[in-house]
Amino acid sequence: MKIFCISDNIDTNIGLRLAGVDGIVVHEREEVLKAIEEARKDKELGILIITRKLAQLVPEVIDELKLSASLPLVVEIPDRHLKKDEDNDYITRYVRDSIGIKV
């Protein structure tokens, strides 16, 4: 099973590549949509990582992927654009919203 990252900055892409995760750097909505479509064509892809800034450009597509029971599993990650105090409980909220358990 493969992992793929769609990022808006080269630093995230390089860091994940060092961990063995392939990825692409994009900036515009159309580029994000194209990257997601290409990633969905890969039947071996199990996890799609996307930076939150890019996920906010295509929320309807991300919601559709998250709500479907098929692969890939979509994981939004905070990016360098996040302010320190802006969203301290991001992971906790994500778990609560996803599976309904307060951690």
From TrEMBL:
InterPro entries in the cross-refs: ATPase_V1-cplx_f_g_su, ATPase_V1_fsu_sf
Gene Ontology molecular function terms on file: hydrolase activity; proton-transporting ATPase activity, rotational mechanism
Keywords associated with the record: Hydrolase, Ion transport, Transport
Superkingdom to which the source organism belongs: Bacteria
EC number: 3.6.3.15
SUPFAM superfamilies associated with the record: AtpF-like
Gene3D superfamilies, alphabetized: ATPase, V1 complex, subunit F
Keyword Transport: yes
EC top class, as a word: hydrolase
Entry similarity comment: Belongs to the V-ATPase F subunit family.
Protein name: V-type ATP synthase subunit F
